Amino acid sequence: MKTPKRIQPLVDEGLVDEVMRQLMSGKEATVYVVRCGGEIRCAKVYKEAHKRSFKQAVAYQEGRTVKGSREARAMEKGTRYGRRVQEEVWQNAEVDALYRLGAAGVRVPKAYGCFEGVLLMELVTDAQGHAAPRLNDVEFTEELALEHHAKLLQQVVLMLCAGVIHGDLSEYNVLVDHAGPVIIDLPQAVDAAGNNSAAEMLERDVANLRTFFSSFAPQLAATQYGREIWALYQAGLLRPDTRLTGHVEENKRPADVGAVMREIELARKEEEMRLLYLQQR
Ligand SMILES: Nc1ncnc2c1ncn2[C@@H]1O[C@H](COP(=O)(O)OP(=O)(O)OP(=O)(O)O)[C@@H](O)[C@H]1O
Ligand SMILES: [Mg+2]
Ligand 1 pocket test: which of 23, 31, 188 has the largest number of ligand atoms within 8 Å of its C-beta? Predict the structure, then answer.
């Protein structure tokens, strides 16, 4: 096909040899299938800031670091330069997340860099070599639903162990290839340690998976994996191979008032003895 204007700089640089077809046009970006030498890859072209939607919301930006104080000040002031820096931070966020997660062993597309607002990455394919379907496009038996749900939770845990929360995880942002789920669409990915809404976002991501899979496996509806994962993370106990139960122990044991009273009485007696001892000296 005719090279779209936004991809032309990559063709000029020799990063892309040919644009084969448009794969999808979403709310935030348009995705193309491209040929780079002998490899078929995909190119995600981000829409301009004013055409994008919620993912730029303040809650997602929190905890994101910028190069230097000059850039940070410019962003705060909203100058033209500031807006350009902001745009760059936004566009690099996804490729950064892909590198970080890929290195941590999370199943995400392999990234080949982001140039001029175009992310080059591996094209995820099905067994026939076609662009892989989204989770939402796949029908599951109960058994397969349970298996995919468990695999995805494992990915969520791996991500969190790497300090990252997806922030927009759903059946629309997961592809299914021959080996199972592959997580995509990460420009809004959140830093788990530096964001006040982290717990909420993690729980929402996990709840979205629960809602989707419980239509195939109703027993999932009562599970609390999100809360469980977050509690383990906060306690410093989350590991990539942590076994999850889906249940959170509610602390329902009444406080042992008797034991507390005995402690107080003991302390009082001790003090009494100490005073007596001092008097007798
Ligand atoms: N690496 C990939 N391999 C195969 N298909 C992909 C890949 N990345 C994206 N796609 C396809 O392009 C679609 C849009 O990609 P993505 O979700 O990253 O962009 P988006 O514009 O932010 O989406 P939306 O706003 O609709 O969620 C995906 O649903 C998927 O079908
Ligand atoms: Mg998407």
Answer: 31
Site to probe by mutation for ligand 1, drawn from 44, 54, 118 as the one with most ligand atoms within 8 Å of Cβ, is 44
Residues 172-182: pLDDT tens digits? 999 999 999 99
Cα–Cα distance, 109 to 132 (Å, whole number)? 11
Q: How far is the CA of 126 from the centre of ligand 1 (A)?
A: 15
- Looking at the 3D structure of the chain, how many domains does it have? 1
Asked whether residue 242 is assigned to any structural domain, the reply reads: no
- The CATH number of whichever domain residue 46 belongs to comes to 1.10.510.10
User: Could you give the 3-state DSSP secondary structure of residue 19?
Assistant: strand
Q: Identity (one letter) of the amino acid at 181?
A: P
- Taking the C-alpha atoms of residue 166 and residue 187, their distance in angstroms, rounded to an integer, is 9
In tens, the pLDDT along 104-161 reads 999 999 999 999 999 999 999 998 889 999 999 999 999 999 999 999 999 999 999 9
Letter string b/e over residues 193-212, b meaning 16 or more CB atoms within 10 A of that residue's CB: eebebbbebbbbbbbbbbeb
In whole angstroms, give the CA distance from residue 259 to residue 264: 9
Q: Which residues form the domain of 169?
A: 5-234
- Our separate counts of H helices and E strands in the chain read 8, 9
- 270 within domain boundaries: no
Residue 17 Cα, ligand 1 centroid: separation in angstroms?
A: 21
| Ligand 1 touching residue 31 (CB < 6 A) | yes
Whether 280 maps to a domain, the answer reads: no
- Residue 28: inside a domain: yes
The backbone torsions φ and ψ at residue 216, rounded to the nearest 5 degrees and listed phi first, read -100, -30
Q: What is the DSSP secondary structure assignment for residue 110, as one 8-state letter?
A: P
Whether 93 is in the pocket of ligand 1, judged by its Cβ within 6 Å, is: no
- The CB of 24 under 6 Å from ligand 1? The reply is yes
Judged by its nearest atom, the ligand closest to the C-alpha of residue 188 is: 1
